[in-house]
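Open question from group meeting: does this chain pack into something compact, or does most of it stay loose? Before anyone orders reagents, we agreed to write out a predicted structure and look at it together. Recording both the input and the output here so the notebook holds the full record.
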Amino acid sequence: MKIFELRQLPEAELQDRISELREEIFNLDFQKAIRQTADAKKFSTSRREIAQILTILRENELGIRPIDIVETQISEADESGE
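Structure tokens returned:
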């Protein structure tokens, strides 16, 4: 997912997504251990997405970039036709 798509999700969905990605990484590690073909790119993309989600959650916690501001920016962009 793109970062702007992640910013639009509620916190509960972000937490669920982190759980899914961590399970996916675990399964990929297991496949690698038993020498099945594991997509190496999936490791990096999953880890990157987890980092992005954790960053978004921390920003929201600190109030650096609250969800309300992001929603306002998105609605303004929609109104201006961008």
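Observations to bring back to the group:
The domain at 3-80 is CATH 1.10.287.310 (Helix Hairpins).
The chain is about 80% helix and 0% strand.
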